[in-house]
Amino acid sequence: MWMFKQDSLITALEIGTSKVVAIVAELNESEAINIIGFGQSPSRGVLKGQIVDPKLAYADIRQAVKAAEEKADGELHQVYLGVTGQHITSNNYTGSHAIASLDRCITEQDIGDVMSNARRFNLAQGQHMIHVIRQQYMVDGQPLLNSPVGMAGSDLGVVLHAVQGYKDRLHAPVQLLRRMKLEAENIAFNGLASALAVLSPAQKAEGALVIDIGGGTTDYAICAGGVVCHSGVLAVGGDHVSQDLATGLGCSFQRAEDLKIKFGSAIVSEAARGQVREITNESGIIDRRVHIENLHRIMAERLKEIFAIIAAEMDRCDVADMAQSVVLCGGGAYIPEICTLAGKVLELPVQVGSGVNLHGPSTIIERPEYAAALGLLKFGAFDLARRRDAASTRIPLKQRLKNLLRIEH
Q1: What confidence tens digit (pLDDT) does each residue in 8-28 have?
Q2: How far apart are CA 269 and CA 222, in angstroms?
Q3: What is the DSSP letter of 396?
Q4: How far apart are the first and last CA of the chain?
Q5: What pairing do the DSSP bridges indicate for beta strands 155-166 and 218-224?
Q6: Contact, 357 vs 379, CB < 8 A?
Q7: What is residue 344's predicted lDDT score, i.e. its pLDDT?
């Protein structure tokens, strides 16, 4: 193995409840992202997005990273790390600043002042800021997406979207990576990463809701006008669907998982009524008969609940009208008829997402379960470009935890 040129290399690492994924990409001179390495391992030490067994998690991460290194034929030292979990929350904050100059012309100094005012929010003890994203400026109450420098006005406002999580839970995977001599170059919320991966510029502008249904969590983000306007996490995912089936059908979790994959559906169709499947054990002997209609009904109820919670949260935060479509990703996107169910609950057109503006194997880019990791590659590309533009030196992780995606202008 040889050592990569680190200023053109991006490595994404997603430590999920069901799988660990590592993807290596090169950023060429034209800023195109080209995937050159991939590794995956089953995840055994993570529950609802949080590491609960460091020993098992270490082994699974090491396996995925090693596979990616072998495929890329190079040694990795830094990664862009995706994070999720119920501890992650988001809020919108506003700030205002009176223009004091005689000509009322807005300057760069005014921009800095209003951003500082908007950031004067209090975090709960133990919380760290993951992202602060500028949504829009306002001049005398009129919204603007672009910089208002040079415009005239008496009052300058700004709206920020902030994503925060608890420091100890954010640092747990970082510390685990350091044990294997890997540094977290930056961290990003998986929900935002998935949106980066699967939304086209037109979708970001028109307004879209991205829902990533993973094994232990469901992450979501709404983009409109080219920026993130809301995001969140539900501590419910595909594993909960399987657990519901295990309880309702009176079988083991693994048997329920197999039934979900083989016979599952997000809606109860007419064709399923009266259908019975005979299930054999490891010896090939029929030991169970499953009513498919019942299986579908159990799945539909849990999945409907997930979409209904997101819809209620969008209404609560007054962002429901911002989404014109829905994009599903994560392993849950494979469930048959899930787009139909999501469309009924959310009352929007729904599609399954795949990577946009990425180069590499279609078996990686087009698969919705890799959306978060693919988005981390894009996040890394933006981060590298920002560092190059600023000609900045390496910033300690503790400081970067406070500054990710903090747009100054």
Answers
A1: 899 999 999 999 999 999 988
A2: 30
A3: P
A4: 41
A5: unpaired
A6: no
A7: 97
Whole-number pLDDT of residue 234: 97
Query: Tell me, what's the pLDDT at 87?
Result: 96
**Given a cut of 70, is residue 326 above it in pLDDT?**
yes
Q: 43, 13 in Cβ contact below 8 A?
A: no
Number of domain units in the chain:
3
Residues 42 and 128 in one domain: no
pLDDT of 71 over the 70 cut: yes
CA 292 to chain centre: 32
Reply yes or no on whether the pLDDT at 4 is more than 80.
no
Q: What are phi and psi of 153, to 5 degrees?
A: 180, 165
**Residue corresponding to tokens 């279609």:** 362
Closest CA to 406 of 230, 228, 167, 198: 228
Asked if residue 118 belongs to a domain, the reply is yes
Distance of CA 153 to the CA centre of its chain: 38
Q: Tell me which residue range forms the domain holding 78.
A: 1-89+163-199+356-409
Residue 155 to residue 94: CA distance in whole angstroms: 13
- How many angstroms separate the CA atoms of 8 and 185, rounded? 13
Q: Quick check: 334 pLDDT over 60?
A: yes
Does one domain contain both 174 and 310?
no
What is each CA distance from 70 to 7, 25, 65, 66, in whole angstroms?
Answer: 20, 13, 9, 6
Pairwise CA distance, residues 69 & 201, whole Å: 32
Exposure of 263 by Cβ count < 10 A (0-12 exposed, 13-18 middle, 19+ buried)?
middle
Q: The dihedral of CA 291, 293, 297, 303: what is its sign?
A: positive
Give the pair of three-digit tokens for residue 105. 């012309």
Please give the structure tokens belonging to residue 363.
């078996």
pLDDT tens by residue, 182-231: 999 999 999 999 999 999 999 999 999 999 999 999 999 999 999 999 99
Query: Residue 158 contacts by C-beta under 8 Å, 6 or more apart in sequence?
Result: 94, 95, 96, 114, 115, 118, 134, 136, 137, 138
Assess whether 76 and 223 both reside in one domain: no
Please, which pLDDT band fits residue 383 given cuts at 50, 70 and 90? confident
**Distance of alpha carbon 314 from alpha carbon 385, whole angstroms:** 33
